[in-house]
C-alpha cells in the first residue's frame, strides 16, 4: 500500500511570522451563525429504483398521504418502486428572511437504488426547537452520478443515493435575533488561545479608540457597544472584523496530528525535541497466498473438489542505521533525518510515538478525527 506524507510547517524561518490577519479570519460573532434544519420526505418519479417491500415505511407514508386527500382507504397496501423515503437537511443562514431560497441535501433512508429523475414532495424542515422554518420541494440533482446494470454486471459512478436541490427550500420563518439592537456583542475565537484573545481585545480597543473590549476567557471577548454606535451594532461588527492582528505573535500549542487511515502527518513549527537516538531497521514482511485446487482420484466414492490454501511468509531485514538528534532540534531536522533513512510513513508515526513515550518530544500527539 502506498502512503503519502504531508508536512505542514507554520514557519521555517527564524523569528515570528510577520503576516497579519483580520479579526474576521480568526473569529466569529456570537449569534451570527447557521441553524441546521432537518425533515423526512418522499421522492417520487423514480424509474423502478425506489424502496422495495422490505422497507414498508414508504408505502405507509404514501397511503396516509392519499387517505388525507380522500383517496383509497386505511387498509390499502401500496407497493411501488417509484418512491423513496428520504432525509432532507438544510442550513438556515443568519439573518435570512421569509421567502429566501436555500439549498437542500437529500439522502435515501431505505433501500432505494437511485434518486435519479425523482422529485421531492413538499417537506417541512424543522429546527432544534421543533418549529418549522422552511419547506423543501423540487427535482433532485445527482451532480453527475449514475448507475446502470443488468443481471450479471452493474456500473456505478459517483453516489446515487444522495442528491441536492439548489434553492430547493423556501424560508417560512426565522429566529428572533436583531444584531443592530444588541447592547453587547461577543467575539469568539475559532481556535481558543489566551494570548490571541488578549491580542484581539487590545486590537479592538485600539481600533475604536475606547476601552470597550475585555477578554472573558481563551475564546470569548465581550465588546460593549459605545454610544457612537447605539442602535448600529452591525456597523460596529463591520469595523471590528477588519482590524488587523498578528497570529505569529501567539504561536499555537505544539501538536502533532497522525492520520493512519490516509498516511498523513501534520506537525507545527513549535515542536521541539530533546536529545534522543533513533534506530531504524529495514524490516520487510511479505505474505503470499497461492491457493490450489485439490480434486479426488478418478472413480472415488464421496470425493469432492476443494480449494487448498497455500501461504508463504518471507521476512527480510537490512542493516540498521542510527541517527542522534541534539537537544533543541527543530521539527525540520527531525523530518529530514527520518527521510534520510527512507522511513515509510506508517513507521514514522511509530517512531514519533516512541520518541514521545521516551519523553524527548515536547508536543501533544493527536489522532486525526
Key terms for this structure?
369 residues; alpha+beta; Gyrase A, domain 2; six-stranded antiparallel barrel; four-stranded antiparallel beta sheet; 6 helices; 26 strands; 36% strand
Distance between the termini: 22 Å
In spatial order, strands of the major sheet run 3-4-5-10-7-6
- Main pleated-sheet profile: 6 strands, antiparallel, barrel
Counting structural domains, the number is 3
Mean pLDDT: 79
Pairing-aware structural class of the strands and helices? alpha+beta
Q: Uncertain segments of ≥5 residues (pLDDT<50)?
A: 1-17
Computed CA radius of gyration, to the nearest angstrom: 31 Å
Strand content: 35-45%
Count of helical stretches: 6
Q: State the share of residues found in helices, binned by percent.
A: 10-25%
**Total DSSP E strands:** 26
Oligomer: single chain
Q: What general outline do the C-alpha atoms trace?
A: flat
Summed up:
This protein is α+β, with helices and mostly antiparallel strands. It contains six helices and 26 strands.
Describe the protein in words.
By secondary structure, this protein is α+β, with helices and mostly antiparallel strands. The chain has three domains: 21-31 and 181-249, Gyrase A, domain 2, CATH 3.30.1360; 35-144 and 159-171, no CATH class; 255-295 and 305-367, no CATH class. It is 17% helix and 36% strand. It contains six helices and 26 strands. The strands form nine sheets. Strands 3-4-5-10-7-6 form a six-stranded antiparallel β-barrel. A four-stranded antiparallel beta sheet has the order 2-11-13-12.
Describe the secondary-structure layout:
Blueprint: E1 21-22, H1 23-26, E2 27-29, E3 35-44, H2 57-68, E4 83-92, E5 101-108, E6 119-126, E7 132-139, E8 146-149, E9 154-157, E10 162-171, E11 184-189, H3 194-208, E12 213-215, E13 220-224, H4 233-240, E14 244-245, E15 255-259, E16 264-267, E17 272-273, E18 276-280, E19 283-289, E20 292-294, E21 306-308, E22 311-317, E23 321-325, E24 329-330, H5 331-340, H6 345-357, E25 361-362, E26 364-367
